[in-house]
UniProtKB/TrEMBL annotation, chain B:
It comes from the Bacteria. Pfam families: PaaA_PaaC. SUPFAM superfamilies: Ferritin-like. GO terms for cellular component: cytosol. This is Phenylacetic acid degradation protein. GO terms for biological process: phenylacetate catabolic process. NCBIfam families: PA_CoA_Oxy3 (TIGR02158). InterPro entries: Aromatic_CoA_ox/epox, Ferritin-like, Ferritin-like_SF, PaaA_PaaC, PaaC.
Length: 164, 258
């Protein structure tokens, strides 16, 4: 990569990293670990993004918003490429992202992603009051990446980021 | 997009990819029929989410099928322009939803197979199939756990829920044999390390099922008669009705976009 290309890639990465997830607007795609790579080939920028779930309906919107953010930064005609490998897991989420999630009222993924024991227990801390006295209401929530929980201490329901 | 049905040369690799894609699409379509009808709100959301995962997996496989087929075909051509006899999904996924117990039993049976299958597919020599599987197996593990927990609740619940789960298990069991069948073309792909051998997954399937059924106070049906044919395009009458619904818009308004 020439110095000019390296500079272009840096600027493009900075712009792409500002794009927020449309379903969890408090997180950027960099926080989520959805932004994988920014490369420059013959002066043309390519941004690689990865879906959190196979059917994630936000990917098309994220792709368009990446192109828009780059265009606003003076980088038109960027290409967006969808990559599947290595597969996204909650381990790709940054620590800053997890703190933002909790502050937003969504319990961040609690453990390292691993193949869970099929019927294993989960421990989720209430993002509102910090109590560990919580129970799962549903394995599935308002979006593919979240489950529905409630706190038995403060009685508030909350979303919890699924650990995959 | 032309109105005509697709006529394409089906290499063994393309046929193998389409079988994976069709399983995911038809199951996803069936599950989506519950949207707005599930017995409780949480379950309505859960079934719609599982459907979304399945349709997402199907899109990845169809996109790869289009790449392999070449000739400018797209994922939509494979989903919307094939006839019943060109679909390669197993018969299990096209079976009607029945009552809630029926849907849960179907989900347990297919998930107990697909979950280890995708996990084995992550070791494929075909990098694209391995990547799609690595993504999908995290989702199917979740589907298996969710449907397994429900089957335990139904089987170990009231007399009524037990009887319904039992009846669904008896009805759907004959469609499980097809999951482990291998035709010669698929055999060659297995030999080449492109696809895993489903017969090698039988023990894990049985163990998973026995664990769930044991907790659910149910037992594996004793019947050994099995109904196959879906992989070769011989489907039950149900698939035609599914495709009429699924393909209507692209057949009536070819190439429509919005
Ligand atoms: Zn609380």
């Amino acid at each position: 990569m020439t110095p000019a290309d390296a500079d272009l890639a840096r600027r493009a990465h900075t712009a792409a990293a500002t794009v927020c997830d449309p379903e969890i607007p408090v997180l950027t795609i960099a926080d989520l670990g959805v932004l994988r790579d920014v490369t420059v080939e013959d002066g043309r920028v390519e941004v690689a993004i990865t879906p959190t779930y196979s059917g994630c309906p936000a990917m098309d919107v994220i792709g368009i918003e990446v192109q828009t953010a780059l265009a606003e930064a003076g980088i038109p005609d960027a290409r967006v490429r969808l990559v599947l490998s290595p597969a996204w897991t909650t381990d790709w989420m940054t620590e800053a992202g997890k703190r933002k999630l909790a502050a937003y009222g969504i319990a961040p993924p609690a453990r390292k992603a691993s193949r869970r024991a099929l019927f294993g227990e989960e421990q989720v801390t209430c993002p509102h009051c910090g109590s560990a006295a919580t129970e799962k209401v549903s394995e599935f929530g308002s979006t593919a990446c979240k489950a529905l929980w409630r706190c038995t201490a403060c009685r508030e329901p909350f979303d919890s980021f699924k650990c995959i | 997009m032309p109105t005509t049905s697709l006529s394409h040369t089906e290499t063994p690799l393309l046929a193998g990819i389409l079988a994976l894609a069709d399983d995911a699409l038809i199951l996803g379509h069936r599950l989506s029929e519950w949207c707005g009808h599930a017995p409780m709100l949480e379950e309505d959301i859960a079934l719609a989410n599982i459907a979304l995962d399945c349709v997402g997996q199907a899109r990845s496989f169809y996109a790869y099928a289009a790449e392999v087929a070449g000739g400018g075909l797209t994922e939509d051509d494979f989903a919307y322009r094939r006839e019943v006899g060109q679909y390669r999904n197993c018969l299990l996924v096209e079976q009607p939803n029945g009552d809630f117990a029926g849907t849960i039993v179907r989900q347990v049976l297919i998930s107990a197979f697909v979950d280890p299958y995708y996990r084995a597919l992550t070791a494929s020599r075909d990098a694209t199939l391995a990547a799609i599987a690595a993504k999908a197996e995290k989702e199917t593990a979740y589907h298996l756990r969710h449907s397994g927990e429900w089957l335990i609740r139904l089987g170990d619940g009231t007399d009524e829920s037990h009887a319904r789960a039992r009846a669904a298990l008896d009805e759907l069991w004959p469609y499980t044999g097809e999951l482990f069948e291998v035709d010669p073309a698929e055999g060659a792909l297995i030999e080449a390390g492109t696809l895993p051998d489903p017969r090698a997954l039988r023990a894990e399937f049985d163990a998973t099922l026995d664990h769930i059924l044991g907790e659910a106070t149910l037992t594996r049906p004793a019947g050994t008669w099995m109904q196959g044919g879906g992989r070769a395009g011989r489907h039950s009458e149900h698939l035609g009705f599914i495709l009429a619904d699924l393909q209507y818009l692209q057949r009536a308004h070819p190439g429509a976009t919005w």
